[in-house]
Amino acid sequence: MNSSITMNAYAKINLSLEVLRRRPDGYHDILSFMQDLGLHDVVTMGLTEESLGICMQKFPSNNCFIQGVRVKFCMNYSAISLGSDNLAYRGVEAVLKALPEDGKRPEELYLFVDKKLPVAAGIAGGSGNAAGCMLATNALCGNPFSLRELMVLGASVGADVPFSLMMNARKNRTVFSELPGIEEASVAAEIEGIGEIVRPTEPKPYGVILMNPGIGVSTREVYEALDAQSGRSVEEKLFFNRMEEYTLKQYPEAKALKDAMEANLRADRVLMSGSGPTMVAYYNSMAQAESDYRMAKDAPWIRDNWKVWYTESGEMYDEH
């Protein structure tokens, strides 16, 4: 059993997002095409505090017991709760609760999340943290669950967690090489249901510039504002986001950002990711994306509170 694991917890983007209907349980059925982003937080988990190589005393922490395991959870971002409403906490809890009584379980777990991604931004940073914590907890317990079994557990943690699990397993495949079923993992998938139906598919490579207006948007608020809509297939509606109309109307900062990107970047497409407010400019040409990013970093049309990133999406890989 490994004594510690460090991994990148990657974010995702929606190349398409259609909201179909509100279900009796309050959730919404969706159709979406999700894909990886090269941007990430960092999750470190160990069986001892020393194994993390991090001075956890410098950060707010939550010491708790989950299924008899002492868990110390720290994050370098004080605005996020470290309790049971935190997706990373809930990811650890889901794995530990599912362990068989006679299965391997550590006496203690120490967890540190190095938060780099914006919060409430529509790129599933919290779901990526949950996925990373589930993968790491599973590995430190001897990999009792396969990737698909973790994805089933992940659906109870959050709607984006099943895809985040598959995508992060693929992007951290050297760390989780012993995970049963990892050969199925892809960085792109068609999503249905509330997010629990995940069909791996071929990624679509793009250079991407992401921009965030420095505000947060509540996913629940956007869902509750949408009327039930009938949709078409994911492929038919690539580069479509049902949530965009509401967010742009209700959040002038998000609309101003998208308008500025469309006016000043030479992207092939500009689309909001998830419930927003992060906007994504897609480029078929990586060179053009890099050129626009260099220009945008210091451009006069960029407001002081706007954040700009360049990365790639749709990691291409061979099958060996």
Summarize, please.
The protein has 320 residues and is of the alpha+beta class. The protein has helices at 87-98, 125-140, 147-155, 161-171, 219-225, 244-250, 252-264, 286-297; strands at residues 4-22, 28-46, 61-66, 69-75, 108-114, 188-192, 197-200, 206-212, 240-241, 269-272, 279-283, 307-313. ATP binds at residues 118-128.
Architecture blueprint of SSEs:
Layout: E1 4-22, E2 28-46, E3 61-66, E4 69-75, H1 87-98, E5 108-114, H2 125-140, H3 147-155, H4 161-171, E6 188-192, E7 197-200, E8 206-212, H5 219-225, E9 240-241, H6 244-250, H7 252-264, E10 269-272, E11 279-283, H8 286-297, E12 307-313
Parallel strand pairs: 1-9, 4-5
Antiparallel strand pairs: 1-2, 2-5, 2-6, 3-4, 6-7, 8-11, 8-12, 10-11
Helix pairs in contact: 1-2, 2-4, 3-4, 6-7
Pathway: Isoprenoid biosynthesis; isopentenyl diphosphate biosynthesis via DXP pathway; isopentenyl diphosphate from 1-deoxy-D-xylulose 5-phosphate: step 3/6
Enzyme class: transferase
Active site: 12, 160
